[in-house]
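Lecture notes, part 5. Sequence design as translation. It can be helpful to think of inverse folding as translation between two languages: the language of shapes and the language of residues. The source text, in structure tokens, appears below.
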């Protein structure tokens, strides 16, 4: 791009930002001051011709990479047949998506509904649990993220709870199983899951006797990429069964090959009663699912379960979902996530040896967390360092996502199709950006 063209593009970008200030509603974070003109794979291009490597997969959605050919071709096919139907009408691809998705799941998870977003699927899951059990109390983990709609937001503890008045009654929080920053003081050196036992005891103490479900991410993503200790969810399963509760796993961000298995719950040894999917299922388009058993589905039918939107079972999105599932299987992307995730984690650990501000590296597959600290002994979160280094990375051509609420955590989740040279380039940029930070050297 010539200097003159860059100048014109910058003027266009400035005009767009003026319009942003006039018309777009602030929704939680400032917009990143870049205008993206195009994206492909793990790379985005700005309006002025800069190339930015995306380690966020478009906020965890573009799991196959931006504008994957299988996705764009599926959109074309849908455009030539049918894009949308009234929600009681079905296109063949909706049925086929259910068939192919069920082949990836345990036999007990066979019945599903397709919706648009993770929040919608979690709303459906919570309503199913209340309808089936007759209870209304929902247990959720501190640091969880399940969505911004009423029921999902009430079970969300990562952030966004203040300023909106009362939440849906009956939500109970238990501590997050954060082994790096344990809420139980004596567990700092050895995890014995005391946080879980304390939390479950609190549930029994605070419940009014109407427990319906526990909802959890197998790995907390927006809460700081928190991987529970081995055996954690087996104990949760026992607790739910003993109290007549359903177990809901929210795999919006961990499902469909991201963590190295097709579903992260496979690593826990526990099968949920209800599974929710979104983000990765649509690979950049708004597609979600709530999946449950034949017995729970039968109760829902008998009790006239009602949960639908104008875009339930959309043919366009079903065609895309089919392309995503088939691509994940054909290209063995779960195994690829394990291999590349190990390679990426090794590179991050090398950076940790050189930069004192990196306190912890965790995660599975291509869902990794890097926690930044001011001091490795006190583990004080280094929010200012994260902010400065993230901005340096962006200037150097790397987009990296900041999560973790009170913690300073980078969530590193590139597309599953990222190449090793791109990982190497990302690590080089991170190293350069960290090297400019006095508190990291």
């Amino acid at each position: 791009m010539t200097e003159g063209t860059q100048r014109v593009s910058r003027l266009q970008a400035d005009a767009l930002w003026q319009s942003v200030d006039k018309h777009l509603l602030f929704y939680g974070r400032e917009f990143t001051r870049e205008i993206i003109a195009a994206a492909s794979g793990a790379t985005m291009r700005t309006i002025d011709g800069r190339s930015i490597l995306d380690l966020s997969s478009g906020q965890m959605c573009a799991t196959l990479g931006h504008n994957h050919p299988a996705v764009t071709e599926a959109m074309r096919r849908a455009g030539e047949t049918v894009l949308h139907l009234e929600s009681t009408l079905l296109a063949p691809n909706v049925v086929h998506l259910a068939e192919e998705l069920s082949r990836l799941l345990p036999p007990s998870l066979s019945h599903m509904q397709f919706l648009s977003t993770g929040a919608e699927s979690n709303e459906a899951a919570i309503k199913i649990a209340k309808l089936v059990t007759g209870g209304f109390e929902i247990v959720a983990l501190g640091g969880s993220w399940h969505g911004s709609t009423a029921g999902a937001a009430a079970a969300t503890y990562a952030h966004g709870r203040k300023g909106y008045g009362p939440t849906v009654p009956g939500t109970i929080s238990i501590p997050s199983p954060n082994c790096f920053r344990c809420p139980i003081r004596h567990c700092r050196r050895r995890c014995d899951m005391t946080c879980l036992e304390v939390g479950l005891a609190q549930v029994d103490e605070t419940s009014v006797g109407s427990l319906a479900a526990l909802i959890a991410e197998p790995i907390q993503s927006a809460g700081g990429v928190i991987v529970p200790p081995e055996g954690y969810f087996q104990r949760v399963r026992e607790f739910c069964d003993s109290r007549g509760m359903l177990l809901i796993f929210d795999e919006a961000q961990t499902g469909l090959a991201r963590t190295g298995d097709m579903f992260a719950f496979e690593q826990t040894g526990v099968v949920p009663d209800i599974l929710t999917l979104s983000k990765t299922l649509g690979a950049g388009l708004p597609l979600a699912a709530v999946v449950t058993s034949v017995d729970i589905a039968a109760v829902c039918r008998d009790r006239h379960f009602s949960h639908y939107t104008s875009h339930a079972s959309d043919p366009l999105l079903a065609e895309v979902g089919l392309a995503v599932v088939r691509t994940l299987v054909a290209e063995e992307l779960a195994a690829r996530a394990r291999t590349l995730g190990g390679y990426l984690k090794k590179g991050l650990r090398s950076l940790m040896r050189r930069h004192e501000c990196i306190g912890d590296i965790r995660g599975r597959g291509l869902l990794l967390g890097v926690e930044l600290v001011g001091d490795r002994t006190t583990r004080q979160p280094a929010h200012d360092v994260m902010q400065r280094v993230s901005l340096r990375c962006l200037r150097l051509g790397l987009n990296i996502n900041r999560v973790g609420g009170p913690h300073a955590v980078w969530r590193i989740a590139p597309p599953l199709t990222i190449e090793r040279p791109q990982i190497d380039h990302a690590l080089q940029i991170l190293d350069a950006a960290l090297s400019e930070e006095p508190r990291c050297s």
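The translated text above is only one of many valid answers, since several sequences can fold into similar shapes. The domain at 3-61+333-435 is CATH 3.90.1150.10 (Aspartate Aminotransferase, domain 1).
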